[in-house]
Amino acid sequence: MHSIDNPNAPDAKTTIAEIKRWVDEFSTERDWGKFHLPKNLAMSIAIEAAEIMEHFQWLEPDATLSLEQRQQIGEEIADVLSYVLRLASVMGIDLASTLEAKMVKNAQKYPV
């Protein structure tokens, strides 16, 4: 069973506000706010996303990933997510309402 199907998995119980707080506290404890300008965070998102792509660069479409590869990709996804959360926090963007509004736009643009 995937974690998305498991009501006891952390993804099913943890709020966006909680994980934003984790990232913000981590940054604050290290006094990284002076480096976390929107431009720098946006660049960091792109860099980390490229690191995800690197894992797939030369794989055949039907290749099976090892547990170690999946864990490494998961860490890169976590890096992207942490920068997205930090950028949203720095810019005062509410992710849930912004994503909801964007999904409404997407539904209009790409009807079923």
In short:
With 112 residues, the chain is mostly helical. 69% of the residues lie in helices and 0% in strands.
Structure characterization notes:
This protein has about 110 residues and is mainly α. It has a single domain (about 5-110), classed as Orthogonal Bundle (Helix Hairpins), CATH 1.10.287. Helix content is about 70%, strand content about 0%. The chain has five helices and no strands. Helix 3 runs antiparallel to helix 4. The relative contact order is 0.11. The mean pLDDT is about 95.
What keyword list fits this structure?
112 residues; mainly alpha; Helix Hairpins; 5 helices; globular
Give the topology, please:
Blueprint: H1 10-13, H2 16-29, H3 38-56, H4 67-91, H5 95-109
Helix pairs in contact: 2-4, 3-4
What is the CATH H-level superfamily? MazG-like
Radius of gyration: 17 Å
Q: What's the helical proportion of residues?
A: 55-70%
What does the main sheet amount to?
none
What string, H for helix and E for strand, traces the elements in order?
Answer: HHHHH
**CATH topology name:** Helix Hairpins
Q: Mean of the pLDDT scores?
A: 94
Global shape: globular
* Ends apart, CA distance between termini: 28 Å
Strand content: under 5%
List the total number of helices: 5
CATH architecture classification: Orthogonal Bundle
Instruction: Indicate the low-confidence ranges by residue numbers.
Output: none
CATH class: Mainly Alpha
How many separate structural domains?
Answer: 1
Structural class: mainly alpha
